[in-house]
Each structure stands twice: as C-alpha cells, then as structure tokens.
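Hey, resending since the last one bounced:
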Amino acid sequence: MAANPSNPESPQVILTRKDSLAVITLDRPESRNALAPETISQLGDALEECGRREVRAVLITGAGGAFCSGADVKDFGDTLDREGPAGLSAHLDSLADTLHRRVILAIRQLEKPVVAGINGVAAGAGFSLALACDLRLAASSARFLMAYANIGCTPDGSSTYMLPRMVGLGKAFEIYTASQPMSAEYAREVGLVNQVVPDAGFERHTLETATRLAQGPTAAYARAKALFNQSWDNGLEQQLDAETAGISGIALTRDFQEGIRAFAAKRQPWFQGY
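The structure tokens again:
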C-alpha cells in the first residue's frame, strides 16, 4: 500500500502492510503527532485503504514515542490571528467534521478490528482517537489527558459518546474538568485501556495482538462489532433480533463452517476472513 495516498510528497501518516495486518503510523514526531488538517485527511485516506478485503485488522500508533497529542493548537492560534473568531469557528467546524466523518466514523464502521497501540501521550483529539478504536493497548509509560478544558474547549472526536459508556457519566465529567494526565495503569483501572504492557516489549506485543486478530474470523469480528455498536441504541428485544440475524447470517461464512469442523476434529481452525 502507498504510504500516503493524498499527498505523497509530505507524508504525515504512514500506511504499511504486514500480510493481512495494516499498520497506520501518525508521523509528525516534532509535534508529538498532532492532528493538523492534512494529518486528518491523510489518516482518513489510510482508513479508506484499510477497507480493502485483504486487510483483516488495523493497528494505529504513533512515531517518535508519542501516540497523538491532539489537535494542532498552534494552527488554531494562527487562524485566530489571521481570520478572527468567526474564521476560527469556521475552521474548527470544518476540522471537526472531517475528523468525525473520515476518521471516527470510519473506525467504528470498519468491518474489522482496529487496535490503538498507545506508545506515549494520548491527549485531546488523540485521547478521543484512542477511545474510538476497538482495543486499546498502552505502553507502561503512556499518559492520557483529555486536555480540552485546559484551553476552554468542548470535547470532540466522539469522546462525549465513548467516555461515559466506558467509565460512567460522573467519571467522564470528572476526567474532562480535571484535565490532568492519567497514567496508563490508572487508565486501565477505570476501563479506558484493555492492557498495559512494559515499554521494552510494547511494540512486539501490539504487533502480535493485532496480527492474531488479522488471522481471526474477520466476518464474525465485523458482525460482532456491528452488534456492539447497535446495542447502545437498541432495546433488549431489538438487540435479540439483531443477534438472531447475525448468527443465522454468519452460518453462511466459510470461517464459521471451518470453525465447526476444526472443533469436531480437535484442531486449530484456519480462518480466511470470509
């Protein structure tokens, strides 16, 4: 896959393939991988590429010892000085809309697992980006910071949707208003992170985890992800109907049939992703 479909001359997001695993690396280490407009656009392009059938799992991480420090606040200041409050408002409207539609919704609607490999700071929109992923693995030195309140800003990037569902409404508001760094271990304790991994083995562990997912029953993962997404809005009866449709549909896939045969033969299944 190309490193940067939208602007190959100034890559800020690197997309690489390791067999059926796609690795997306935010590559602005000088700004701790802050999300400038072009970064968001390139990230959207990379996620669009990951919709290809041969990709069966996605790992998102950052270069240079940081995951993502959030929006490029210097860009905000430049826009305010140049265009005034109305210009800044229009700029933020466009920026947030692009982030939401091309990145956050793309992650939630992608029919395969998306893993956040949080190798350093995840702040502001970077914090939100991590929450939007299906699994979050954090290096022991990683730090989490919602950050928005520190500049008098409201949250974006789906954090007002994801965070209360993970930690509860009161805790979510506490995290927003405190805007203090959280350790990886604390983030795990409150339910924001699935695993905390020692720094020395973090890259290897995240690649192994994402690779295992890329070798799994991709169609089943996709339907389970959709069911979990629907469960936030469905009543019990609607959700049960969705589960019935899901399990009857998955019976038509080769992977489910292979899983049954492998179970009967007492061997490991060989999933092909469909």
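The chain has two domains: 13-214, 218-265.

Sorry for the duplicate.
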